[in-house]
User: What shape does this take?
Amino acid sequence: GQNIDQPTEMTATEGAIVQINCTYQTSGFNGLFWYQQHAGEAPTFLSYNVLDGLEEKGRFSSFLSRSKGYSYLLLKELQMKDSASYLCAVEGANSSYKLIFGSGTRLLVRP
Amino acid sequence: EAGVVQSPRYKIIEKKQPVAFWCNPISGHNTLYWYRQNLGQGPELLIRYENEEAVDDSQLPKDRFSAERLKGVDSTLKIQPAELGDSAVYLCASSSTATFETQYFGPGTRLLVL
Assistant: This one.
């Protein structure tokens, strides 16, 4: 079967660093995406990993280990506006290139 | 560049009534997706179009759901008749190709079936 796991909720302090983990088991692998979704809004693209290693983009970084079926999203210098849900999604090559989403991690940033 | 446009943003109907959602993808994007997102869950794919062809509709409940993309641009998703369990956010997304390309999402239509 296909399964993507991420923590349901996390809380962090403004200015701190937070790491959101994602583990996956899918039929084939073509890449892993992270999306941010504020309440009542559409998911917006954050990052894409297809090779092992760390991809850095400003305050956000994403890491992938294909052998471990593991990724994390690292948010630095947290701001209040980072309070949102963070969705991990895998594109499975054997699933007609369909994105399989996790349930999302709801991050609350406190002052 | 305009993003993915969806309408309506909100819809409240009684069960057994029909409902339709409209989506206009980003200009030039050949691939269009309809997703359903239940509260506290990630989006689940309902149907994917490559131009006007539905290439993956394996998760579309075909007894009551239908979709079309007649000219390969905008698309309509219909539910008839709606059931209580259809209450969800219906998201449309588009990408320039199906593979390895980022999907861009519209704001969604929030459906409440009473």
In short: Chain A has no helices and eleven strands. The first strand of chain A starts at residue 3 and ends at 5. Chain A touches chain B through 24 residues (CB under 8 Å).
